[in-house]
Amino acid sequence: MEQQASPLQEKERLSWLDAARGLAIFGIFMVNVPAFNAPYFLYGGEEQFWPSPTSQFIQTFIDIFFQASFYTLFSLMFGFGLYMMKSRLEQRAVHYGPVIFRRLIILIGFGTIHAFLIWHGDILLSYGVFGLVMFAFFKASQKTLLVTALSMLGFLIVPLTLGMYAVRSKLGTFNSHEEVKAATQNYGEGSMINIWQQNFADWTYSNNIGTLPLLALSLIPMFLIGAYIAKKGWLHKPQVHLSEIKKWWAGTGLLFILFKAGPYVIGNPEWFQLMQDNIGGSASAVFYLLSVTLAYRTSAGRKVLQPLTWVGRMSLSNYIFQSVICFLLFYSVGFGWYGEVTPLASTGIVIIVFSLQIVLSKIWIQSYPYGPLEWLWRTLTYGKIQPLKRTDSQAS
Asked: CA distances (Å), 382 to each of 44, 135, 203, 245, 375, in order?
């Protein structure tokens, strides 16, 4: 007899996965705030507009340890979660296709609202669209998942890097003064309509026919690696797979250093950036995930990482919350700080807001098992209103 589909129960949660999601939310925020408060991340010229040694150091630090590391970690966790959802539904004799399809379509809806009304750098819409590709891989073998992921990562990255090396003398020229001026005026001084128009222009600039293949070939491989890790069972029983986890941890850590920090030894050339972000960023995502998993096996590690679990348990709500806060801080309809926040001040905003999120998340989950948007997502996915208030049996 086919059972009714239902969401993951609290007792089934793995705390180190929630901690990894919380870390991803922090890392994404560290990259998003500079991109939210000035046009230079999108159109270039940050060295020209923030030339001080302090600003340069902070930007380098973020580039090595955060850029392309945490949206990839979040992508990995997304693929992991989709595969585990498919497995749970199969165990309950439920057809997983319709449930996961609804989940992705609802995510596309969230992403559309977020991308066009709040933040052009949205990742939810891309996750929902490219996540549909996972239906072709749910029954794939471990080897197929891994080989396909690695092949996709290298498919465009290697030839494009060689091509950029061939024209390296023509790279690095900043010529987007008009785009920077328009973004500064519309976001910093414009009306709500001006903000939405600029947001649409920035979204289409980032998501055009030339960039979509690169986006697909950076996200889908991480979905597949997440499914691979889920299929291996590393994160469910890390003590059983400890030797293999440590080998992957060391290997991805080495690739992380070589491809993320290594380029700075040769002047961080622009022609190498695709390799740096796609190879180094993907390796660092796996490294961070396995680092959290290993650290959580120690009492000191659990104590340090515990606050991240509160944020990670309501990662969707916290991700949107960050965008709403940035919208109010930087755009003209709020405080209007657009283009006026230095990299150092940007880092301070991240630390303050994320600390607030830790506190609010802890308070929320003491009374509610899900974040508000997680509750809505689950309710729409399963077609049944999910209990929001925490019951006595769920009390922490």
From this structure: 43, 18, 31, 34, 11
**Amino acid in position 159:** P
pLDDT (tens digit, 9 = 90+) per residue, 174-223? 778 899 999 999 999 999 999 999 999 999 999 988 888 889 999 999 99
* H helix intervals, the chain: 15-37, 40-43, 46-49, 53-65, 70-91, 96-117, 124-131, 142-166, 177-189, 192-206, 212-232, 242-256, 273-275, 281-295, 299-312, 315-330, 343-367, 372-382
Neighbours of 57 (CB within 10 A): 12
Query: pLDDT class for 2, splitting at 50, 70, 90?
Result: very low
Dihedral (Cα; 274, 222, 127, 39), 10-degree rounding: -30
Say how many C-beta atoms besides its own lie within 10 A of residue 250's C-beta. Answer: 12
Residue with tokens 């590391």: 69
| Spatial separation of the C-alpha atoms in residues 298 and 295, rounded to whole Å | 6
